[in-house]
Design brief:
Elements lengths: L1 H21 L31 E5 L3 E8 L8 E7 L4 H9 L6 E8 L5 E8 L5 E6 L4 E4 L4 H5 L27 H13 L7 E7 L1 H7 L24 E7 L1 E2 L2 E4 L16 E6 L2 E7 L3 E3 L4 E2 L5 H13 L6 E13 L8 E15 L4 E10 L10
Keywords: Signal
């Protein structure tokens, strides 16, 4: 019961409050301009840094038995600038609502934190199919009620939640209506039609048998809602759930969902799509960026310096807790907290740390984000 209440609250947060959150980071740029392709080459000043694939060291409270993950080790590491991608409203309407012959249009205007006006336009069909576009922004939400609401009652992939059940679904099944590869290609083409480019993804293959078994519905008062259950589940309900993101220079881009959820988690991906034999059933684009082609090469700090930043932080904590750093992956971070229409982009290490407090019998996973060049921890407000 608590499980579905949490789902309803988060779904409400995404669909209703997201428009307000979207207003916090909008840019007024209405078109993408190609900047100079000249790369600022400072190779003579850059000292090469050899990053091992595994790092192992022991300190008083901190143990490193750490896989160092760099998706693309061939490219030089750089800094650049990014701007928030602005979706063309007319293109999005044509892409996702061209088959809808009749709909109601609703508009609302908000002010972002910089005092600029943003507009949220909702299109609602008689069958309750919905399309919401925030402009100027990259935020697009589309949902068809024939399947998506039932998926939200049967699937949960937030790993830190006790309601997590994504491990009950396969990631390697190809359904008869389309392979995973073909389905993603179709999604990628659809998003490209509105100017959104995605590269990496994780997919879950949601078979109808497991969906039916996992389905659980309650109302807003926490009571079992028998009327909300799907009347029947069949093979036609098989679908894929894609969680997709951006890459820059072959490295994943770190995404802070709605400027609130800082953890690296597929559940907080900037692009989420449910795809069935009918095509896209549900789509959420939260925030994506356009990256400048003008870059400046930088050198990563030796990982010993990164490790020392971790040790310095946890050395000050009193008690018998110990910390094991199990993985560190390189990302590019878009610094949305600073800047107006353009944001600094730079490499960061994101560390997964297991915290163990024996006297309390408590184990916990924590995350640290560290600037890969300066070795300074990045704090979120």
């Amino acid at each position: 019961m608590e499980k579905i209440m949490k789902r309803k609250v988060i779904f409400f947060f995404i669909t209703i409050v997201s428009g307000i959150l979207a207003a916090c980071d909008q840019t007024v740029e209405s078109e993408n301009t190609e900047v100079s392709k000249d790369i600022i080459n400072t190779c003579d000043e850059i000292q090469p840094c050899s990053i091992p694939e595994r790092y192992q060291k022991m300190y008083e409270h901190v143990v490193f038995d750490t896989d160092l993950v760099i998706k693309n080790r061939k490219e030089p590491f750089v800094t650049t600038k990014a701007t928030l991608h602005v979706v063309d409203k007319d293109k999005a309407l044509f892409e996702y609502f061209s088959d809808v012959k009749k709909y109601e249009k609703m508009e609302d205007s908000l002010r972002d934190k910089k005092g600029r006006k943003v507009k949220i336009t909702d299109y609602i069909a008689p069958d309750n199919t919905k399309l919401s576009i925030t402009s100027p922004s990259s935020r697009v939400i589309y949902s068809n009620p024939r399947l998506a609401p039932y998926i939200f009652n049967s699937f949960w992939n937030e790993e830190s939640s006790p309601d997590y059940n994504a491990d009950k679904y396969s990631a390697k099944v190809d359904f008869s209506f389309a392979s995973r590869k073909k389905a993603f290609a179709n999604i990628k083409k659809s998003l490209s039609n509105v100017g959104i480019e995605i590269q990496s993804y994780k997919v879950y293959c949601l078979d109808y048998q497991t969906l039916q078994k996992e389905e659980h519905c309650v109302d807003m008062d926490g009571q079992i809602d028998n009327g909300a259950y799907k009347e029947s589940w069949t093979e036609d309900d098989n679908c894929y759930y894609f969680f997709a993101g951006q890459e820059f220079e072959g490295i994943p881009v770190y995404h802070v969902y709605a400027e609130i959820f800082h953890e690296v988690s597929e559940a907080y991906s900037p692009v989420k799509v449910i795809y069935s034999k009918n095509g896209i059933e549900d789509l959420e684009v939260e925030r994506v960026f356009d990256f400048s082609k003008e870059t400046e090469q930088v050198s990563l700090a030796e990982f010993d310096k990164i490790a020392q930043t971790v040790v310095n932080k946890y050395h000050r904590i009193l008690g018998d807790s110990t910390y094991k750093v199990v993985s560190a992956e390189l990302y590019y971070m878009v610094d949305i907290l600073n800047g107006k229409d353009s944001y600094h982009v730079f490499p960061v290490w994101i560390l997964e740390i297991e915290e163990n407090t024996p006297e309390e019998g408590m184990e916990n996973k924590v995350q640290m984000v560290i600037d890969a060049v300066t070795a300074e921890e990045i704090y979120h407000e």
